[in-house]
Design goal:
238 residues; mainly alpha; elongated; Prenylated_rab_accept_PRA1; transport
Length: 238
């Protein structure tokens, strides 16, 4: 018995439905759909158990190389887009997500991105969600860098002490009544600060922190699966 199609059924094209999911904030559905689509061809393959059948090793090597370069290209694609494209200042004003349940979560919350588009989707959304966590990690890495480079720590403290002393003396002597003199002293203090920071390798600690923090952020955001977010409840229409 053949059933005819229902003319009243709703048929939405995939691009339109995906666009609606993006606009509605259901990015986790798109992420799961892309992961399932990438895993579909591998789950349907059958294995050969007959020992008399020989398969050339070159075919396995070819598949391995294709898979390797595909994963490598996905990782390299993380450097081709701006991970802070959707980041706003409001993302730093909310509460910090839980480190155990939200940020790190469990092992099942991670998977290799199936494509470059999925990696882009995950990175931009996770950077937006865990902005405060990544900022805390940056501060932690910077503190570790200063611990490994004591001279940089001395230079940073010296610079802060210099500007604190300048502010104290400016209020004591009333330099705001002499704007030209105040401007000259400010420029002189800036030059001294730059010399201290460069001489004591503070820029080295800052560069190391930026590189390590950026790599950790990209890898975590790319491998971290998107989780459902609480949608704003709509009031009942009267």
């Amino acid at each position: 018995m053949v059933f005819s199609s229902n003319p009243l059924s709703l048929s939405v094209p995939d691009p339109t439905f995906e666009s609606w999911l993006r606009d509605s904030g259901y990015l986790d559905v798109i992420d799961n759909q892309q992961t399932a689509a990438a895993a579909a061809p591998t789950t349907g393959t059958s294995t050969i158990s007959d020992p008399t059948i020989t398969i050339p090793i070159s075919s396995f090597l070819f598949r391995y190389l294709v898979s390797f370069f595909s994963h490598l290209w996905t990782l390299l694609s993380l450097l081709t887009f701006n991970p802070f494209a959707k980041l706003t200042t409001n993302d730093f004003s909310g509460e910090t997500p839980s480190w155990t349940k939200g940020f790190f979560a469990d092992f099942l919350s991670y998977s290799f991105p199936a494509s470059a588009s999925q990696a882009r989707l995950r990175v931009q959304e996770n950077v937006k969600r865990y902005a405060r966590n990544y900022a805390s990690l940056f501060i932690l890495f910077f503190a570790c860098s200063l611990y490994q480079l004591p001279l940089a720590l001395v230079g940073l403290i010296s610079s802060l002490a210099l500007w604190d002393s300048f502010r104290f003396l400016s209020d004591k002597w009333g330099l705001n009544r002499f704007p030209v003199t105040e401007m000259i002293l400010v420029r002189f203090a800036q030059c001294v600060t730059a010399i201290i920071l460069l001489w004591l390798n503070v820029q080295m600690a800052l560069c190391c922190t930026l590189v390590v923090s950026y790599i950790v952020m990209l890898l975590h955001a790319a491998f971290r699966k998107l989780t459902p977010v609480k949608q704003p409840s709509q009031g009942r229409r009267k």
